[in-house]
Amino acid sequence: MSKLPSQQLRIIGGQWRSRRLRFPDIDGLRPTLDRVRETLFNWLQFDVEGARVLDTFAGSGALGIEALSRGAREVVFLEKHPKAALQLRENLQTLQARNAQVWAGDALHWLAQHPQPWDLVFLDPPFNCGLLQPAIDQLTLLPGAVVYMEHETALTLVIPANWYERKNKTTKEFCFRLFEVQETKVPGTDTEK
């Protein structure tokens, strides 16, 4: 199998399977590896179709585009770097993806201004920048929502008590983890919130 040039990614499955898309050569931009995306979307096989998806720190858009290819109802991409946001818009136009929008700006600012629930959230910020915990803290999610995160192995996070970890894998350099938001029990009662 030949290796892709460093500024291309391949869609793994769905309606755009095997399509190749370009992304800019920007320091710190690292699309989720093919093998990791394949594992992730195997984990998500019942969670993507019809989902409202938020791809924070989108970069190349590999995760959100993969979700669109597999039947997501809508994807909002958040990307701060102007070149990456522009290329992402061009790629979505090439694919004729009408159910997607790109917000070119700071993801944390956007999350603070748009406290709305999502079915599926991708959290894959640049490593060693201190962005993941603030993003987790700002999310508004309903029970049943699914959150994927990718982060450096050494990072310690405070995960909300009602997030159940469904799956995870760890390498020397990074972890990738899948959580599902559970009902929250009200302390001292048998009722759920």
TrEMBL record:
InterPro entries: DNA_methylase_N6_adenine_CS, RNA_MeTrfase_RsmD, SAM-dependent_MTases_sf. It comes from the Bacteria. It is an enzyme of class 2 (transferase). The keyword Transmembrane does not apply. Specifically methylates the guanine in position 966 of 16S rRNA in the assembled 30S particle. Belongs to the methyltransferase superfamily. RsmD family. This is Ribosomal RNA small subunit methyltransferase D. It comes from Parathalassolituus penaei.
